[in-house]
Amino acid sequence: MANLGIVVGSVACRGEAPPPQQPVYVGGVACASCHEAEAAAWTGSHHDLAMQEATPETVLGDFAERAFVHGRDTTVFSRRDDRFFVRTTGADGGMHEYPVAYTFGVTPLQQYLIPFADGRYQTLSVAWDSRPLEEGGGHWFELYPDEDAGPAGPLHWTRPSQTWNAACAACHSTFLEPGFDAETSTFRTTWVDLDVSCEACHGPGSAHVAAAKSTSTAPPENWALTAALEPFPARWSRAAGAATAQRVRPLPSRAELDACAPCHSRRAPLRAQARAEDHFLDDYEPSLLHEGLYHPDGQIRDEVYVYGSFVQSRMYAAGVTCSDCHDPHTLAVRAPGNALCTRCHDPGRFDTDAHHLHQPGSVGSLCVDCHMPSTTYMQVDPRRDHGLRVPRPDVATALGTPDACTGCHVDRGPVWAAQVLEEHYGAKNPREHFATALQAGRMQDPVGVPLLTVLVSDTARPAIVRATAASLLGGYRRARVPDAILAALADSEPLLRIGALYALEGRSTSELAPLVSPLLDDSVRAVRVRAARLVAPLLASPASPEQAARFATVEAEVDGILHANAGRSSAWVGRAEWDMARGRPVAAEADLRRALALDSLNLPAWLNLADLQRALGQDDRASATLAQAQALHGSAPALQHALGLLRVREGRLAAALPLLEQAAGAGRENARFGYVYAVAVAAAGDTLQAVRVLEDVLSDHPYDADVLSALVGYAEKLGESARARVYAERLAAVAPEAPGTRALPSAR
Q1: C-beta separation of 310 from 386 below 8 A
Q2: What is the mean pLDDT of the chain?
Q3: CA distance readout (Å), 360 to 343, 423, 470
Q4: Where are the beta strands (DSSP E) in 270-386?
Q5: For 320, phi and psi rounded to 5 degrees?
Q6: pLDDT tens digit string along 537-574?
Q7: 226: closest CA among 260, 254, 203, 201?
Q8: CA dihedral defined by 135, 136, 140, 141, rounded to 10 degrees?
Q9: Model's pTM, two decimal places?
Q10: CA–CA separation, 476 vs 607, rounded Å?
């Protein structure tokens, strides 16, 4: 279908009330005739060019028999007439030629989609750098340069991680239906528009089009699109002498952000077909500021896109929304350079060397250089952090986070940068930044408990920060649920309720039932389904017909998550956990086998299958499962650990020890591996060596309660009361109710 247009939030034609039936998608072509200006602005935008048929006009890469070599693989790009082909290593390890069906993206890189007979489109991992030659572009490059495992590697272009239908398709097309058939493991994927067109943001437009074509004179509210977005741009006004502008009227809703967030966030879909008119949290659960995704100060780390950083910002709190800075049709920023920011911020105060401390026009004098530093993903694609935060080299000094100053001044350090900013702006206390609390929570440092508790209740802080703090409080072992978590469960902010539910993971169903059951009726789907996961056993045994009906509703919503992600192996692993929690081991095993059919390299699926078989008393089957996994994954730490535990259950401690030792050595990031190895060493009769192992683990995980508890016991066994006392005192701070804290009176 041709790519023609997109719709604005107001209509310039009269019409009658939309028909009562549910609106349906009609395609962008139906919009362009009334909205010519918007269609013209949108044409050529990144949304328009998100995905295109591969033609001489759309293909940017050099297909003139060009060869690209990466590791053991050679990829040759060629063209015959108006068709494009790639010769490269296939799933079987042999060289094959494949036709290119579609282009994917446009700049700074372009990828290519290869069709397969089962309906899949695989994204080639050799991409074209479409930047100008003077910027280093104009060549082929490998997106995963550190991968050289061929078809056996999880990121090989033929693997499920690169399947367009199940991964990136929905955000590069309009009203995409993956069409995955679980019985045949095939796709019949459909879409309304090949690119990100009108209805991707504004929702199905049939009623709007019908009203526009009518000759009736109904009131304007009857012309509304399914997703009613505020007319843009918003009006802001800066009073005389004020540093920053204010909205002329309050932002009426977050509908615009809800329209952008599904594709500009790190999130998990909650149902098969999201609706543009929905609240974002009714269709998705966004990631909190989890370790690995974000630095403890909220700066982006992994590829998390925009939502999670923007909702941390003071701009968001003040009512700024996406179209204040970006034209929603061209996607360009509304003014070049600092002129974008000085539309709201006094240039005489902010766009001066007295403020930014750089020569005007130099690198560092741009507002975004300091307040929106970029991180490069996909080798050539820099993304700016939308937290719009003040540089804090003092926090970088204390916690090792990145800082914008030394990102440019690489020959200096954050201590120098902090001193410079202190001279110009005054001293700041890094402990007052929420990063201190989040970092302590990630490490389970006991000093984090009061810091996180205060942060959860601080309504002046961003909701996503408070929610993350709530989730981290759950990492501390406490017999009683903290009051801060109880308050967060009832907070008006949905993200706080989600964070509190994270904190409750691992507690018994009987304890959770009175706390979590009310949230099964929450007004927000993301809250309901997370609550349901926590009390899954309760849902399997309703106490009354009324409760059964209530539970059935939320169970159907959880089932919808599987349908939304059925083409992904990980979705079936999640489904297996859901089935196990509801006492359905046969269904759980079928789920895991489905996961492995989709992706044989899904290690959690192998481990969960073996653990399920162990729980059913089938250690012989578990052994065979782990042997199959070992043939694919070799010496992965989690696999070595599982094999070691199996040998222990078999009574073969001597055979278990080298496996557990390998897991502990290669998987130092997991304290459990080292702890279990130490316990096995002690069981073999070498308590002194067990203590050495645990002390080594403690160097990486200084607040792990299991490690500390074991050290207390083993030190006492060795007659080293002073050493035992030191560990008991630390254990008392980490886990006050732990048995080891009562071993020595002085440790209380």
Answers
A1: yes
A2: 92
A3: 18, 20, 43
A4: 284-286, 374-377, 381-384
A5: -65, 140
A6: 999 889 899 999 999 999 999 988 888 899 999 999 99
A7: 203
A8: -110
A9: 0.93
A10: 26
